[in-house]
Amino acid sequence: TKIIVVYLHKSQWLLLYTLNIMDELYYQAIDLLKELISTPSTSRDENAAADIIERHLKSHNHDTHRHGNNVWAIAPGYDPGLPTLLLNSHIDTVKPAAGWSRDPFTPEEDDGGRIYGLGSNDAGASLVSLIAAFLYMSRQPRNYNLIMLASAEEEVSGKNGIESVIPLLPEITVAIVGEPTGMNPAIAEKGLMVLDAEVTGVAGHAARDEGDNAIYHAVDAIATLKNLRLPVVSDMLGPVKISVTQINAGTQHNVVPDLCKMVVDVRTTDAYSNEETLELIRRAAPDCRFIPRSTRLNPSHIDPGHPIVKRLEILGFTPFGSPTLSDQALMPWQSVKVGPGQSSRSHTADEYIFADEIREAIATYIHLLNGLNL
Q1: To 5 degrees, how large is the angle CA 262–CA 266–CA 272?
Q2: Could you write out the DSSP letters of every residue in 106-132?
Q3: Which helix (H) or strand (E) holds 266?
């Protein structure tokens, strides 16, 4: 019997230790993702998923905080004199789309390394990868505070999601929001306003030359909105997009309608706040009354020169502007959206994530956070 003794340099031992830790984090993340897939957590019904996240963080000796179905943990060594970085992703999913060929709540892994299941791509993979990076970085020296927040009701922009937690958090400097972007940083994101619009006329009998048809006035308003181009165009997001998506008027065939109602979908950009965009629309179509259902889902933007963005560029990723909405819309601080997976897989039947995308995301997040100067 031969005994082979191998002497390793200190740096090699450190490398082996780091590789072992990375493998451990990866396998824990995969197990956590599969547990979340197996737990239905559609928006406003995330209690069981929140319990899972809470147990997972506590099992790694982190004190947790909870408000409704939102769960967060603050890394040890919090110092109010330091900047604070928030890691955030959501635990809720949409309802399963029609056309699933497998059980959306049973995680399945195929020979190609795909893990199928509802919420696997949006945003389970980002959530478990960020948690893994948080667990690792909590034990590393940092010159910033670190918080991990798993939020609820993201898919419906609900009042009991991240918006309800913001007053309970320490002051946040910047956030990383986990959503499927192929790990490319979305440094700008469109906001959303839904407007209920009304155009009035005067009722009359359709057989006689009476009344003032509200529909005809609505046609003019629709043409104005269709052709409206706001003066400032965002470099990352392009122009504000205005779409009339619903229209309703009239009570019966022989009555000239005195009211025409419309619904207008407005995708705002970082060129204007939602309130500024609304005011410009009102000026362009003064004969139409616009009532916003909400102006709270604002566009977001982060400086392209921000250290987080620059570090991601050094790692080989490309900044872009995102047309899809996330919890960034409700954040009053700067944020960047970045995570594993592809947006095109979200909300689709047979949603999936590649296991390797999670492994790469954990490594990327850790490289990003290690040595970051805010």
Answers
A1: 140
A2: S-EE-TTSEEESTTIIIIIHHHHHHHH
A3: strand 259-268
Helix (H) or strand (E) holding 301: strand 300-301
Closest CA to 303 of 366, 232, 374, 240: 374
Phi-psi region of 58 (alpha: psi -120 to 50; beta: other; left: phi over 0): alpha
- Residue 274 exposed, middle or buried by CB count within 10 Å (0-12, 13-18, 19+): buried
Residue that the structure tokens 């830790």 belong to: 21
> Which residues lie closer than 8 Å to 212 by C-beta, 6 or more apart?
201, 202, 204, 256, 258
Cα–Cα dist 125/123, whole Å: 6
- 3-state DSSP assignment of residue 163: helix
| Nearest one of 293, 332, 296, 333 to 159, comparing CA atoms | 296
Sheet of 191-200: strands edge to edge? Answer: 241-249, 259-268, 191-200, 289-292
- pLDDT tens track, the chain, 374 positions: 455 554 444 455 444 445 678 889 999 999 999 999 999 999 999 999 999 999 999 999 999 999 999 999 999 999 999 999 999 999 999 999 999 999 999 999 999 999 999 999 999 999 999 999 999 999 999 999 999 999 999 999 999 999 999 999 999 999 999 999 999 999 999 999 999 999 999 999 999 888 999 999 999 999 999 999 999 999 999 999 999 999 999 999 999 999 999 999 999 999 999 999 999 999 999 999 999 999 999 999 999 999 999 999 999 999 999 998 999 999 999 999 999 999 999 999 999 999 999 999 999 999 999 989 99
The angle formed by the CA atoms of residues 326, 267 and 95, to the nearest 5 degrees, is 45
The SS3 assignment for 330 reads helix
Tell me, letter by letter, the H, E, C secondary structure of 303-325: CCCCHHHHHHHHCCCCCEEECCC
pTM > 0.85:
yes
Q: Which residues pair with 246 in a beta bridge?
A: 263
How far apart, in whole angstroms, are the C-alpha atoms of residue 338 and residue 361?
A: 9
Cis peptide before 123 (omega within 30 of 0): yes
Amino acid at 301: H
